[in-house]
Amino acid sequence: LPGHHASLKRQVSQLRPTYDFIIIGGGTSGLTVADRLSEAFPKKTVLVIEYGDVEYAYGSFDPPQLWLGPPPAQASAWTFFSQPNPDVNNKTAFVKVGQLVGGSSAVNGQFFDRGSRFDYDAWTEAGGHEFRSSDIKWDWHGLLPYFKKSVTFTKPSAELVQKYGYTWDIPAAYGGSTPIHSSFSPFQWADWVIQRDTWRDLGLPIPKECAGGDKQGICWVPTSQHPVTARRSHAGLGHYADVRRPNYDLLVKHQVIRVVYPKGSGKSSSPPLVEVRSLSNPAQPVFNVTAKAEVIISAGAFHTPTILQRSGIGPAASLAAAGIPTLIDLPGVGANLQDHSGPGVIWNCNPIIQLTTITDTKPRTFSPVPADLLNATYLAEATAQFNEVPARGPYTLALGNTAIYVSLPRAAPASFQTIVSKILELANGPLSNVAPFFPPNTDATILQGYKSQLSALATLLSNPQAPSLETPWATGSDPTAWSFLLHPLSRGFVRLNPTDPLSQPLLDYRMLSNPLDMDIHLAHLKFLRTLVSTPTMKKYGAVEVSPGAAVQTDAQLAEYVRAQMILSFQHPCCTAAMMPRSKGGVVGPDLKVHGVKGIRVADMSVMPLLPGSHLSATAYAVGEKAADIIIDEWKKSWH
Ligand SMILES: Cc1cc2nc3c(=O)[nH]c(=O)nc-3n(C[C@H](O)[C@H](O)[C@H](O)COP(=O)(O)OP(=O)(O)OC[C@H]3O[C@@H](n4cnc5c(N)ncnc54)[C@H](O)[C@@H]3O)c2cc1C
């Protein structure tokens, strides 16, 4: 990112006396909101306060050498280890979060998909009748215009279409012209056809477009990538660096401590002040920045609830434990943590395995394959290709751009009804039936909201068109089909560290605390294990390596899940959920925090339920919709 943008501020002394809007967190959703508000109100001022810096991001796949080794120590991402998960052999979740201008969009795997229409419809269903009367709708129809607006999709060249068979449908899914780019990589590994043919053998449909709400079968997923340079497109570029607007300031290397109401004004008077501290000069006293209109918190699923809790907005007991006076007892702040998780199924295929040995001179069936990156010459070549303008080669593929999406009725025709009935039993039963999935003394409003969520999830999981399993397939030495549990039933939480509330929060994922998640994992795994019998896998001599022939019974498979599952696929969310207050919610459909004035939340923490997708496309859409809601409201009051 260009470091000398006129609006870039490094000291609070460089700020204006006041701002109309203050946005906390210069990440995916936050910068989207900032861009739109500064555009809509040229005479009003917008300040974004960001913890990290304006810098080149180490992404998941750039610089490329990171792919194979551990990432170097870097300032551009936080790494978290959760508390141990008792139901998963006490394993801890390892989670990364972007800490720079652009937030997680600047370091993620660039897989740029959206959930299915049913995932977003479930948000409305979970909100229940309290939200049904709202004019603001967060269902698929309410979000689609913002999905479309939030990106510019560029269709691939005729040559790439010919080579790989990429498909898309612009009217169904795209049409926007925002400088956040979605395009297809110019590269595929040669063995990608094994995946395609295997999935085809299973009879899965191949939709022309999976971003238009109907996401079932074998999907091409674009990459968040510039169509010409083939390099990462992210919020820091599209919603900050590319924007030249005199009313838009960005303060970097400052941590927002809390939002605080001016003395004597009380929580009902708006707007609060934002208290910040310098990270580059810790000796500097904390500083209050004044917002004349409102404050929007967009610090992501871990830090948004932390900032609210430091502001005295959260569960009274944990605030007290951290020595923070309660402004408003809102038990849902930090609760409802969800993430994608799952184990993989691994095969050994003759033509691929023979390539894992660099010195192997046997004739190749496919070339190149990811294992070639173990060869220093190929690695250097791939790196050089990535550094060309436009970039070429394997690193432009980032995380990959295909996955299959399968519903529970399709994956487990014989058992899905039993699973769904058990979920419905919980949804319709007493609170005491769901209480064991939560820590002792969990507030009744949270349990009530959880029952509403279960009801919506039962609808979702019984829908043959709504995916419950995502499988991105990693080729390479051993082809692996990862089994993403798209709609988890277990809930974790994020709490302030009571001994040091300014440090990183404590995460408790509580994975598999609802044992029905295990039933769904088993259903997914059993489905994936059938792949080995497809004609394509047989043709390549595939043998299941893991779970392996010895794992047959449900009990053995469950042990396999506990031993092998990855606890976070880097999609934490839902910790300031858009649910009624009576259901443990934190914000309403207008994204205002329940019970206080002048504070909204706009980021991945507002989702009540995790959609069946990677999250960045939804984060942009949430930012776009949040901005529209805010603009609409202030336009009315300023005219
Ligand atoms: C390693 C990784 C891989 C991923 N892969 C993919 C993928 O391939 N595809 C996909 O779609 N999604 C992926 N995701 C998820 C997706 O990128 C995120 O869910 C999404 O970008 C989150 O957006 P957000 O606006 O909620 O938060 P973020 O974009 O994380 O923004 C939050 C911002 O707030 C700042 N902040 C936090 N606390 C404070 C504070 N106290 N004061 C000031 N600023 C603060 C942070 O520094 C950050 O910049 C991945 C994420 C990670 C981390």
Name a few traits of the molecule.
binds flavin-adenine dinucleotide; alpha/beta; about 30% helix; about 650 residues; eight-stranded mixed sheet
Can you tell me about this structure?
The protein is an alpha/beta fold. Helix content is 30%, strand content 15%. It contains 20 helices and 24 strands. The strands form seven sheets. Strands 1, 2, 3, 9, 10, 11, 12 and 24 form an eight-stranded mixed beta sheet that branches. A four-stranded antiparallel beta sheet has the order 8-16-17-20. The chain has a four-stranded antiparallel beta sheet with strand order 18-19-15-23. Helix 1 (28-40) runs parallel beside helix 8, helix 4 crosses helix 20 and helix 17 (516-529) crosses helix 19. Mean pLDDT is 91; it is low at 65-70 and 353-358. Flavin-adenine dinucleotide (FAD) binds at residues 24-30, 49-52, 60, 96-99, 103-105, 107-112, 255-256, 298-301, 303, 307, 399, 570-571, 603-604, 614-617, 619.
The amount of helix comes to 25-40%
What is the SS-derived class?
alpha/beta
Bound molecules: flavin-adenine dinucleotide
Instruction: State the major sheet.
Output: 8 strands, mixed
